[in-house]
Design brief:
Chain lengths: 407, 417
Amino acid sequence: MTDIVVTGIGIVSPLGVGREAFWDNCSKAKTGIKKITSFDTSSLGSNVGGWVKDFDPSQYISPGAYRRMSRISRMAVASSVEALKDSRLILDDTDRGRIAVIMGTSYGSSSHAEEFYIGLLNNGPRGAQPFLFPETVPNAPASHIAMFHEITGPNSTFCQNEISAENAILYAQNLLLQNQVDVALVGGADELSAIQYSCYDAVGALNKIKVEDDEPVNPKLGGGLILGEGAGVLVMERPDFALARDAEVYGILRSGAITGGITSIGHYEAKGEQMARAMFLAMKEANMGPDDIDQIDVSANFSGELDRMEYNQLKRTFIRPLNNLSITPLKYLTGDFGGAGAMRAAAILLSLHNQVPLPTVRAEILKSEPECSLSWDIHPRGKSQVALMTSTTFGGGSASLVFTRTQ
Amino acid sequence: MITHTPKRVAITGLGIITAIGESMPTFRQALFNGKCGISSISLFDTTGFPCQVAAQIKNSNLEALIEPKEIKRFSRCDLLGLIAAHEALLDSNLDLERSPCSKIGVILGAGAGGMLSWEKYRRALWSKNTKPRPSLLLPVAHCTLTDLIASRYRLTGFRATISTACSSSATSIGYGFDLIRSGRQDIVVTGGSESLSELTFAGFNSLRVMDPEYCRPFDKSRRGLSLGEGAAILILEDYGRAEDRGTTIYAEVLGYATNSDAFHMTSPDPEGMGMSKVMAKALERANLGPDQVDYINAHGTATRVNDQMETKAIKRIFGEKGARDLAISSTKSMVGHCLGSAGAIEAVAIVQALCEQVVPPTIHLENPDPDCDLDYVPNSSRAREIRFALNNSFAFGGNNTSVVFGRGQVRKEESGI
């Protein structure tokens, strides 16, 4: 038995700040990708991203507490506050040593690393600011969550590019199943910074698209990444613990698998065999087959290399008439970031809980052929029992998770 | 699938590169001889910093130790890690052509990763004199080495990179232990790599926690840590599988625990409660009592607070008398604090101690601090019975990890000394 239940969700996303705003826009396929105005992009080849526009940390955290936090830490802590509140877990009645905090991020606070290093370049050793340095470690968000809630259980941070949050979710599952902890705050977070954006631009990875202020963004399919940012935190528990406290359950993490594809730095697995194996292993562990899957949230991110590979593997795995295969490439709405897996998992769980399928596109769109265009189908309330989340990252790792509706 | 009978976890391969030794034989000799690797740095300009020393690997031709293919795409951190992984995999005698590579995972700890490469890029951009090579940005992600090792040896099993500052690679060993114990993986390549970088060097200098000469853990006159660099890779393997193929089992991983101080980003809990609890939990998971442990490889950074708190925490778990019976040492006195790879380097030191039944020393310990009044094995290694050993790693953000090791099945003539 590998079931873990999810009892709380907190989100700071390009689709909206807070769980309700996120779900509202997500279920309507309203995009969070827009012109970046939070930093200067005038010298770059692109100027769009899935960035979080109206985030006010004071809605969640006192100014004294967030003053020294980086943007990523603020978003992560805010998400944890919302998730815990949502779960109705009373921390004072819970052994805080048996609560884990496990997060995933690609780079942590790249803006603090940049600011610290530029201070050093400009002014030499005297320019190195001691208050910036601690925020440069990727585990700062998870540590802030622990400090904020005084949670003293296992604490860890995974950095595996675009499967960072998936890694965090499966490590938390590992701790819960071993009865090391009763509860885990699990998530992913990343910040979109000027330095990160310019570095992705320099290596030619971005979708070359420039828009005016309120102009709608029409990314080129297969044309390159659109970066995003945000944070998502899930409250995960063993079913017995959730049952004992009569917690409301969003859904069940039934199984998960991680595999490693063989590729070179900066590239996705070429054919996707290991991505397909991760899907197969996750479904096998859940005692399910492709026909049992009602929804598929895919990892496509506008990068031709990934999207085409994912299409080929979905085609092989789900042997259905192709016009029947609908998928949800949520990153087409949010942009891509390493910790996005928690936000994607949250979308799936809200969909299963609300019994409203996620918006979908036809799978063929991933082929990124010239005749393809991005068109979303919005679904009315309807039955959905099982969802598969597939993730793959440049560097070769792949993850698959199976979620089911609460019985 | 998760099995219901937990498997035992053997260590069947070791590889290392540090400032005191660039392979297992040279490291082993330096470790027991108490060699200091801390000296001036040539990797970058240290003018103006209060501390200008670190344990840098001085070999200027590291590239010669691995194939030159794709060399421009590797960061220094990746190079060090690949060198250690190559040695560890050779040492394990695994026939990768015939092994089920889909059940061989790679789980590493990372600190600053390819930061040094990013700094080269950023400095060039800042100076406006030269156009930086975008390829310098490719190895910046913390998981680059994990992916490189997996791809180089075609290992398609589980893949993860843990980045919790100074406890990263200790936790990666722990996660590798979990995955083998549960039957999810047969073998895990684990450990970590760290190269010196300007950012970390300036960062620790800015916090005023670096000793301008060399670190002296547990000494009354200690003034802080010395940074270091290096990589250590351990091959973890299902114990039964290792026995079946008749390979040397250097040691056994028996358990681990992680927790959080939930106190401060850079200072440990002043009572050392998190440190005590993580040691107690690791022993509980290993089914051991404190009286069965003979050696602790301490976090022992030589900051004023750490060494006092760690001593206090050890006494709380082992009792005043029990704590005095322990041998405790800080490998960081020799190799410096290697941050993301510290736990893995110290795990290799523990494995050597278990194999040889010799405790490595804490060097530069001349005037014991009255608040640090345990046996830190000052300056010279010492033969003693070591049944079980514990490694402590305490990190920025209050992340604590302890790992418990036991003896393996090494015959003296195989040990290489």
